[in-house]
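Readers of this paper often ask what the protein records in our data store actually look like. Below, we set out a record of this kind in full and without editing:
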Amino acid sequence: MLICAILDQKIDSRKNGDDCTFNGYLEDYLSLETTELDPVLKEAFAAIQEKEPETKIAVGLRSEINNDAISNQIIRYKDVFKLNGKPLIYPYVLYLKKENNEKALLVVPYSSYGFIKAKGLYYCMTEPGSEFIDCKNDIVAICSDSAEKIVDTFTSLFTARAGALQRGIDRISFTNYEDLKAAALKAAEQLKEEAPAVLAALEDRSAKISEYVTEWFLLKKVLYVQYMVNKNILNSVHEGNVKKQRNQAKINADEITFLSYSEMWRTTGAPAKEEAEEAAPEETPAEA
């Protein structure tokens, strides 16, 4: 099934569905009084709608964690499998059928490490076993603070190969795997440091805990998959030995630090390091 056909079937909350919060024409979404977008996305989406009036958008598209995906089994981040329902949320998916071609752009709101989240979501969206696996060459993921870049990328979906487009986007955010890894480790540590105070202030922590677990999972996912798809690393570092490459990819993913599921429920708001000294975590970030 093609990408637009799959997305058209998603039922949003307006129709009592749980697939997404909105699914329909971009023009209709932009006209809703309840629509809240940051300035960059507001400008970008308005420009896209003007250029391509038939564009549709799925907002807050949700999906389950694919327990059977090989990469997820190797990463073995146990906490993510404790999450119920559809914890993965794809912020905005713009899609369009044009001249017998169907394309989609996954858009993640800009943040310091949003580009890593965008890649992680893309890998989840297109991994083996996903309903979008056969559409992976029709989807591009972007996180940008430039409305013009988002618009240009959407327009280019129909004139350039998705892989080439994605590589161009990636090069803006990181130059090599080590740069990506350093950014992912920093993002993980930042989440770990902020989580105790954020969670302690909430009456109901469940949704935020799910969000944190998902964020750490995506960081692990990117470090694992991005390493495995790098043929240059396979040949120059591991001499063509995929088993060695896979082992190192898992080691890289294990370097992502996090608070365990139980730690986040117990936290009183003290810095994570202080609480870790008081009680051993249920599981350690680095798993054998």
Remarks:
- Confidence is low (pLDDT under 50) at residues 272-288.
- Residues 193 and 214 are 16 Å apart (CA to CA).
- The radius of gyration is 19 Å.
